[in-house]
Write a structure and sequence with these properties.
With about 500 residues, the protein is α+β, with helices and mostly antiparallel strands. The protein is built from 18 helices and eleven strands. Strands 1-11-8-4-5-6-7 form a seven-stranded antiparallel β-sheet. Helix 5 runs antiparallel to helix 6 (about 115-130). The longest helix has about 30 residues, at about 455-490. The model is unreliable at about 1-15 (pLDDT under 50).
């Protein structure tokens, strides 16, 4: 610009003459600079929109049942004192009395209200409390009695009215109750002796279906394996119902020639047919092998059920059913796989369904995706008289962890009863939704997803909170347990673990 132009511009600026539009308009910034300034604001707004909670479907009503309650704190205290005052000689006396009673005093047609079953339960608890003071000498025999009493109870239950609450409670007390009493003894064993009792033999039930042999146990096609994993959600599945149990997963066994495989529904993959090594890749804290009795389903029918499940798994993708709708075959959860397979052979399993009637438990399960509170649960198949227990395996090195996990869940559900809610970090919801979109893309490409199919971003965050809270309480329980062992000289019984867990849960409230 020359000198004349500069002077003219100066005069216009001083009010002499108006400036032209072109002279008044400031120079525009390049597009990339404008984008650099505005993009962060747009991203913040977009992320804020992604963090807006979505409306959730209403929960179904809890089941019209009621939770089982032991309500026997005085008994547990008495058993604790009995254990402290017992000797190997007094434990031997209690065990001999129990063995003789189970062998000779339970009538072949005992009803669920028969006094002999009440006495058998009482004698078993007393013998277990005494044996805990001298476990090396008595654990194996107590295990054998528990197996015998379990099979007697299951055979008796074939004539019981399972719709009657008394029948169900009797089954639960004698099967679940005696298992837990036995395990209190097993937990007192020295580590070097524990491995010998990892396998507990059950009933010798014949089958003509193909089989393989593992540790002296014949495993037939059509057998059903219940198991318990080591994840917090596994503990919740086992405990979050009216009759808290020990198992969280179901797999249907398939045997062809000498090859053992399983058909099962996984949260991450949906329905899968996989080999033995895949099944055991996930840690199993315990396993229970069940076999449908031959008078209910022949070996041919059991094998056909397993074949149907394998074919169904290989035909195409079947998603996992988080809602636990046992009457919708489009999606399958683990128990539903075995139930659907045997239904093809006109065998309706799960005569005792799993119910969740406590509103606070239903509220927590609902927050994690469950929508049906009367369904098929892994633990409750054990009580079906149509199936027999063939064998039970325990990872005795991890058995204490199993009991701690149960105690933590029981304490968390107690806090739910007092008003605690399943939480999630709302500020992370946007990120979780982006991750869900990425997971959906991975699933479409046939790859593993971070957030499973059928689980939304909000539920994924709640699961993450649940795991963190579970881990916090568990750390506190393990620390308190170490102090208990140092003071008392033995591991704390289950009711002490629950007390420790309740204390820790309360501290985080």
């Amino acid at each position: 610009m020359d000198g004349c132009a500069l002077r003219a511009t100066h005069r216009r600026e001083q009010g002499g003459l108006p400036m032209s539009d072109s002279e008044m308009e400031p120079a525009k910034k390049p597009w990339w600079k404008r984008w650099f300034v505005r993009a962060p604001l747009c991203l913040v707004i977009l992320y804020g929109l992604l963090c807006v909670p979505a409306d959730e479907p209403p929960l179904a009503s809890p089941a019209s049942s009621e939770p089982f309650l032991w309500s026997q704190d005085e008994l547990w205290e008495h058993l604790t004192e009995l254990s402290r005052g017992s000797t190997c000689a007094s434990a031997e006396t209690s065990l001999v009395r129990l063995e003789e009673y189970v062998r000779n005093e339970i009538p072949a047609n005992a009803s669920p209200v028969d006094d002999s079953l009440t006495t058998a339960e009482e004698l078993f608890f007393q013998a277990a409390a005494a044996a805990a003071s001298c476990p090396s000498a008595h654990a194996e025999r107590l295990s054998a009695v528990q197996s015998s009493l379990r099979e007697q109870t299951k055979r008796l239950s074939q004539t019981w009215d399972l719709a009657d609450r008394i029948s169900r409670e009797r089954l639960y007390r004698l099967l679940y109750g005696t298992r837990m009493a036995l395990e209190e003894v097993l937990l007192q064993l020295p580590i070097e002796e524990a491995g010998e009792l990892s396998l507990q033999h059950g009933a010798d039930i014949p089958s003509s279906a193909d089989f393989v042999e593992r540790e002296g146990i014949r495993i037939h096609s059509g057998d059903i394996a219940l198991s318990r994993g080591n994840a917090p959600i596994s503990a919740l599945i086992a405990r979050g119902n009216d009759f808290p149990g020990n198992f969280s997963h179901v797999a249907l066994v398939h045997v062809e020639g000498r090859t053992l495989s399983t058909v099962e529904a996984h949260i991450e993959q949906g329905l899968v047919f996989a080999g033995e090594e895949t099944y055991f890749r996930d840690e199993k804290l315990r396993m229970l092998l069940l076999r449908v009795r031959p008078e209910v389903a022949s070996g041919r029918a059991a094998g056909a059920a397993a074949d149907w499940a394998r074919t169904h798994a290989m035909r195409g993708h079947v998603p996992y059913d988080f809602e636990m709708a046992f009457d919708d075959p489009a999606e399958l959860f683990c128990s539903e796989v075995a139930a659907a397979a045997y239904l093809q052979e006109s065998v309706p399993l799960w005569q005792l369904r799993t119910t969740t009637s406590a509103p606070h438990v239903a509220r927590w399960l609902g927050a994690l995706g469950v929508r049906h509170f009367e369904t098929y649960g892994p633990s409750d198949l054990e009580y079906d008289p149509q199936v027999a227990v063939v064998a039970e395996w325990r990872n005795l090195g991890a058995l204490f962890d199993d009991h701690v996990d149960d105690a933590v869940i029981d304490a968390m559900l107690t806090s739910a009863e007092h008003g605690a809610e399943v939480q999630y970090a709302r500020a992370r919801l946007g990120f979780a939704r982006l991750l869900k979109g990425y997971s959906s893309l991975m699933l479409a490409l046939g790859r593993e997803a971070t957030i499973p199919e059928g689980m939304n971003a909000t539920v994924a965050l709640r699961v993450a909170w649940f795991r963190d809270e579970f881990a916090r309480i568990k750390r506190a329980v393990l620390s308190a347990s170490d102090a208990y062992v140092e003071e008392q000289g033995h591991r704390p019984p289950y009711w002490e673990l629950v007390r420790m867990a309740n204390d820790a849960a309360g501290e985080g409230a």
